[in-house]
Amino acid sequence: MPAAENPTVAMVEAAYRQHGLDARYLNCEVAPAALGDAVRGARAMGWVGFNCSLPHKVAVIEHLDGLADSAAVIGAVNCVVRRDGRFIGENTDGQGFLTALRTVVDPAGKSLVVFGAGGAARAIAVESALAGAARITIVNRDDTRGAELVALLNERTPADAELVVWQSAYSVPDSIDIVVNATSIGLFPDLDARLGLELDSLQPGMVVADVIPNPPRTWLIRDAEARGCTVLDGLGMLVNQGVIGIKHWTGVDPDPAVMRAKLEELFG
Question: What are the start and end residues of each CATH 3.40.50.10860 domain in the chain?
Fold first, then answer.
């Protein structure tokens, strides 16, 4: 991938060109101390919204006028939308994952295992729970962070959640329907990194998803596919959160195929 080309920028701009939208998607570096000034600047310049990445996903909340329901539960924002002159915080990470997941299975009534307890895991677990997932097992090395996510799920969503502290290779129970890697294990350039997972516990009836977009075919995707699982790569989540953001900002339903093709071009 060319060092100067940001994949999210390239993906969104490809959608803007495809639909002839008079809009631009700009990548701006904002220091934490300048976050408030940046949001005020966006208001002053009439921006229809913006995405927000680490380390600003939580800190930006105090500079906004309100939160969408799931963003309030998750406690983090990655997409801001101007509605009636007010900046409202959304979280499209989990929504993007859910859209991709529903192309192969509806999580309602299903049992999930989610590896990780960071921002992606939090968004995915909350959105899955709000979509009707019955049981969610969080597998995480840090028991404190994992316990916080489990408590959030049990207190703020209808799902039953439990924590498994990840100390050795995890064996997925036969009762699990959906397995999600929401960690950075396997992300470029650490291409040889593999999830601490008993591969023989993956069953053909399971859906296995990885949030990592680069490379799209991680070891987890390849290993699960070889065992007959239905697989979802990380491009689906990335594309769909972009689709949702563009719809929020412009009212246009962009073509996800155009956006995915751009990412595939960049990631090879």
Answer: 7-91+239-267
Q: At what angle do helices 234-250 and 7-18 cross, to 10 degrees?
A: 50
- What parts of the chain have a pLDDT lower than 50? 1-3
Tell me the pTM. Answer: 0.92
- Please list the active-site residues: 57
Q: How many CB atoms lie within 10 A of CB 171?
A: 12
Per CATH, the homologous superfamily of domain 7-91+239-267 is: Leucine Dehydrogenase, chain A, domain 1 (3.40.50.10860)
Residues 15, 258 contacting (CB under 8 angstroms)? yes
pLDDT tens, position by position, 128-178: 999 999 999 999 999 999 999 999 999 999 999 999 999 999 999 999 999
Q: What is the DSSP letter of 167?
A: S
Structure token pair of residue 49? 């919204």
